[in-house]
Amino acid sequence: MRTTTRATVTTLVAGAVLAATVTTAAPVFAAQTGQRDRHPGVQAVLDRGVMTGGLPGAVTEVRDGRHRWFGDAGVADIATGRPRQEQDRFRIGSTTKTFVSTVVLQLAAEGRLSLDDSMEHWLPGVLDAPGYQPDRITIRQLLNHTSGVPNFATDDEIGKEFWHEPFLQHRFDHFTPERLVGIARAHRPDFAPGTGWTYSDTNYVLAGMIVERASGSTLAQQIRQRITAPLGLAAPTSLPPTTSPSTGRTGGSTPTSGTPTRTPRTTT
What we know:
Elements: E1 5-6, E2 13-14, E3 30-31, H1 40-51, E4 57-64, E5 67-74, E6 90-91, H2 96-109, H3 119-122, H4 139-143, H5 156-162, H6 166-170, E7 174-175, H7 177-185, H8 201-215, H9 219-228, E8 255-256
Parallel strand pairs: 3-5
Antiparallel strand pairs: 1-7, 2-6, 4-5
């Protein structure tokens, strides 16, 4: 895979917010910015996150029929006190998994891969380690977290660097998908393929790698071509290149994607 990863699992950067966001497709939205009493429950969650949760700021957008409401709390910059704005970009963390799985399902619908294909078929040797059965792990199991492949985000060394204060020093560290898989592979499988369930960011790192093998292009290109560009989201929403500081789960995904876990900006 050519893409690299930030200390955050999969990470699209979006121009809308995610604290309690509800979205429905509608051709035109009447903005209702500043009406803090419009969604008091949501606003209370934002305020509580800042006042008691230690967050510098939080934002959310609610779309209900033809109405759009933007809520915020705290600040975007603790040094200048700049308020949060609707145009702010942020990391959506494990929500990126939705984009990755959509691309995988579209490739399956086109006959370019099958959900019952084995991981070994697409990524030979990648899980060559004691206890693993890559010839029995299917793409379907990667998507529904029944593969038994452990979560790299729960690795002790990852935890030391990405939980609590050390995260501030390591949040922009880069990891290739191969390295993330290697961290997971150093641990024994959680269970035999298809015999259990456990949430694992590694599953979506592998799914992203398979997308690139099956499509012949990068995961970022596939997401843009199939999802964000057709839906008019390409400007505010993207899977950033390695040089961008905005990627991965942090605010949404860190050593745990969708979670603090070093999340691949490829999936999570």
